[in-house]
Specification:
Chain A: One of its GO terms (biological process) is protein repair. The complex is a heterodimer of chains A (331) and B (209). In chain A, 21% of the residues lie in helices and 20% in strands. Chain A is an alpha+beta fold. Chain A has a single domain, classed as Sulfite Oxidase, Chain A, domain 2 (Alpha-Beta Complex). Chain A is globular and about 55 Å long. Chain A has 9 helices and 13 strands. Chain B has one domain. Chain B has 10 helices and no strands. In chain B, helix 2 runs parallel beside helix 9. Chain B is globular, with a radius of gyration of 19 Å. In chain B, 24% of the residues are buried. The chains are: A alpha+beta (331), B mainly alpha (209). At the A-B interface, helix 3 of A face helix 2, helix 3 and helix 4 of B.
Chain lengths: 331, 209
């Protein structure tokens, strides 16, 4: 087996992303001044220095409290994308194919009542109510890079817990080798479902070991709040080492199956979207070179694109899942 | 007896041409303002590249509409605007190409060459631009004299090849999303404008006067 450098998963921040010492020092001075004002403020100031804020909470939707994740690779230290950009620029074809459409059209989505059916090759198939799912395991904050197959990327603080927590509770049978995700396709509330762009409902899938990987997140929130409709409310998957479209939104069903399930994009264009869709700078998509990516909101119009990392920089964590596989063939 | 005023005579007024010229620059002004005011959304580079491509297609439609409109509405003075509109089509195509080369490829010639080789729709876009460049470069009066009227006209019928090539470029780009609604709109418009060149259609258009 080739020996690979294992630091890809811990990409260090670029010099431009590190808070300059002067700014940092002045913040500390301010906090110390505040702390000097009252004993209580002193205590608050101390905890504030320990953790500089990673983003400004948007204050738009109900908060979803969480703890910092201890999973390896779950907290990238890169600059978090603006909430405004992450919620106004995304693909969610059920609400239209333009990246501004989901934010415009998703208000009609009804996220209560909501159930997720878990079925197929499991010993304990059942339906979960969304409120039950929210409490199934402790909510964790994870800051992941997100790489879209179209060549852009973001850094998003998600809230959720490892999908493995749910999988363990339904006890997959020995014959279950894949997990299929089925998402909502409601013509009444989703204007894009009338189009013939994809075969609805949108389906996606993972191999069972990929689904069990601790980084695979069953996601209920972002930026400390519940998910906005356009980002896949009330519950979605996030698989940070794969292109964004692998992460199915607004889940209604999780099925455990023996054979590789068909996926929406694979059915639409087989030669363009493979089942694995791992982020890979060496395997070009016919329409987009995958060697580089544009980080949304970074340094304005003239910023240079950055190099894309194998497995989106999560190679140290997930590389072993693909040992011996030809990633050009299993793209 | 006074001569009946020519239809569309206002198009010959001294202020008319500068006005149309300014109108043709308005989309660019709007985009520059949008970029400066950070109003182009989360991915301004992509927004600019796409908008400039859209405006190239729109100006191509407008340019190709000049002749059928002149015939059908009897607006003879329109002919005076054809070259300017054609040059604006080229102008927006040039900006579209520069935006792609600058924002997407970092003005790296090697990177662009690799991209052209790898992505057929970029190659088609480049071919379309090369054709427009030839037409723009031979749009001056001196070029007409130098080529001779007949040869010049034959060369400039090349614009009929620009339309399908530009559509193919757009279609191929949108094929990733299986989303052809807009492509079909442009195909219908450009198709109708090309059909209007066929002799039977020309006769019908002329007859209507």
């Amino acid at each position: 087996m080739p020996i690979r450098p294992h630091d890809n998963g811990f990409t260090h921040p670029r010099a431009s992303e590190i808070t300059p010492r002067a700014v940092y020092a002045s913040r500390r001075a301010l906090l110390q001044q505040l702390a000097g004002g009252a004993a209580l403020a002193g205590w608050a100031g101390r905890s504030a220095w320990a953790q500089t804020p990673l983003y400004v909470p948007p204050g738009r939707l109900p908060a979803l409290p969480s703890q910092r994740s201890a999973v390896a690779g779950a907290m990238t230290m890169e600059k978090v994308t603006d909430y405004k950009d992450a919620t106004s620029y995304n693909n969610f074809y059920e609400f239209g194919t333009d990246k501004g459409d989901p934010a415009k059209n998703a208000a009609t989505l009804k996220t209560r009542p909501w159930t997720v059916a878990v079925e197929g090759l499991v010993n304990r198939p059942r339906s979960f109510d969304i409120d039950e799912l929210l409490k199934l395991a402790p909510q964790e904050e994870r800051i992941y890079r997100l790489r879209c197959v179209e060549g852009w990327s973001m850094v998003i603080p998600w809230v959720g817990y490892s999908l493995a927590e749910l999988i363990r509770r339904v006890e997959p049978q020995g014959s279950a080798r894949y997990v299929e995700f089925v998402t909502l396709a409601d013509k009444a509330t989703m204007p894009g479902v009338g189009s013939r762009v994809l075969d609805w409902p949108y389906t996606e899938g993972l191999r069972l070991d990929e689904a069990m990987h601790p980084l695979t997140l069953l996601t209920f929130g972002m930026y400390g709040e519940v998910l906005p409709h356009q980002n896949g409310a009330p519950v979605r998957i996030v698989v940070p080492w794969k292109y964004g479209f692998k992460s199915a939104k607004s889940l209604v069903k999780i099925r455990f199956v023996e054979h590789e399930p068909g996926t929406a994009w694979n059915k639409a264009a087989k030669n363009e979207y493979g089942f694995y869709s791992n982020v890979n700078p060496d395997v070009a998509h016919p329409r987009w070179s995958q060697a580089t990516e544009r980080r949304i909101g970074e340094d304005g119009l003239f910023a240079k694109k950055r190099k894309t990392l194998l497995f989106n920089g999560y190679e140290a964590q997930v590389g072993q899942l693909y040992g011996g596989m030809d990633l050009k063939k299993f793209y | 007896m006074a001569r009946a005023p020519q239809r569309g005579a206002w198009l010959l007024r001294p202020w008319a041409k500068p006005l149309v010229f300014a109108l043709c620059l308005a989309p660019l002004a709007w985009l520059v303002f949008g970029a400066a005011a950070d109003r182009l959304g989360a991915n301004p580079a992509e927004a600019l590249i796409r908008a400039l491509g859209d405006w190239t297609l729109r100006f191509l439609c407008i340019t190709l509409a000049v002749t059928p409109l002149r015939l059908a509405a009897g607006l003879a003075p329109l002919a005076r605007y054809r070259r300017m509109l054609g040059l604006f089509t080229f102008f927006y195509a040039l900006l579209h190409l520069l935006a792609y080369a600058g924002f997407d490829m970092g003005l790296d010639a090697q990177e662009i060459a690799r991209d052209v080789a790898k992505r057929p729709f970029i190659l088609v876009g480049m071919l379309t631009f090369a054709l427009l460049l030839i037409l723009a470069a031979t749009s001056f009066n001196a070029a007409v004299r130098w080529l001779g009227g007949r040869r010049w006209q034959r060369l400039h019928r090349g614009v009929y090849a620009v339309a399908p090539l530009a559509l193919l470029h757009f279609w191929w780009m949108r094929a990733g999303k299986n989303d052809f609604a807009e492509v079909l709109v442009y195909a219908a418009i450009l198709g109708a404008l090309l059909l209007s060149r066929l002799p039977p259609m020309r006769r019908i258009l002329l007859h209507k006067q």
